[in-house]
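Appendix B, example 12.
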Amino acid sequence: MPWIKTQNITGPQGPQGPTGPFSRIPGSDLDLYVAPDGSDSEGDGSQTNPWATPQRAMEELWGFLIPPDRTATVHIADGDYTLVEPLRLDHPSGARITLSGGTVSGSKPDATQLSGLNAQAYTPESAAANEAVLKGYYNTRLCFPQTTGLQLRLGSGITLEKLLLIGSRSQVGVELASNTAISLAPSGDFALHNWSAAIQGAGSFSSGGLSISNCYQGVFASAGNSSLIGCLITNTERALNLKGSAVLFAADLRLQYGDRGISVLDAASLECYSTSLQSLSGDALALHAGRISGGLMVDTVKTGVQLYGGSLNLTASRFSHCSDAGLRMTGGSFSGFSNDITDTPIGASVMEGALLTVDQLRFERCSNTALVVDNAQALVYASRFIDCNQGITCRGGRVNAKSASFSNTTGLCLNASRGGFIDYENGSSSTPASPAFNTSGNGNAFILL
């Protein structure tokens, strides 16, 4: 193992005080080896005489300063490793350090294979089914029966790949301190299974292809600037939770077979594209404050969106088969273009204090009422109402439904009461409405044609 001895080189401030001096700088890229039949006491970390645990390899790395033109890789051979304490990944040269498992077998499990027997959220049976599927692919498995999995309190940029981390459902899989960063599966091969929270903390993370299964919480972030690309979160009670100042970019993210989907609070922000949420027993999206933008595909959930506050902007999104409603707003604002709400009892409910501003929103097969406005404001310009029981009900407040169209509506297309006002300019005079167009009625309500 080539190295150069150094003098008086000290690392940055650590979480418990000053870091000790680095003793070595590697003369070339550094490779350390871990294997199930290795020895922490007698091994030297070479390929022919490996250590037994990843912890021992990290201890060795703490004595190295990895310069910008070199890398360090910990090669963890195929096998099962039981760890009785957290694996600390702290290192100021983390951007140049990789922990890599050995091999994988066959094709990576997809969303159909990792469905936990289609059980919504966690059950022992769904956890066992998903674990068997994951073990059939990942040949390097780190098991943490009674402790947190990975901890990062200092440094950033550490990369992990080709690893399956299995917990006890009472601990955190990846715990990130403030101002840290970690890269999970840039190659697409990394999985977290059976944790209280798969990823939690105030640091940043990035992943391309991460799988999270049978955790109480998938991701719980309170700060940091993170990204999830092509990731799967399945059989969790709470899939994705952002609060504080957390910022997350997501693309091709799939959340399935759980209870609640996405929750955003405080000043957190989510930008998502081609993100799908399906087969959830609870709400797909809850926005309490902060901001969400992008595009979503939601299917077979309780409520598509619960909007309590904050700002939601969606384009080309679809909410279908919601057992309660596609959209419920009691605060905040929702703006967007070319979105669909289909096969729900109530399409959208807008309550006092909320603002709905959308263009070309399509309501289809709403078995109760497509749009309900209670002492609020809604602009649904050029929107379409197809095969709905009731079209628009405005009980106080104001609805701008200019150029809206209705087809195959069972009851009233437009119904205003309690001083409500509906602007239906450019509409058809044959559209069923109450009160009659341009006539006050139903408690001083008015529909303008």
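The radius of gyration is 27 Å. The longest strand covers residues 362-381.
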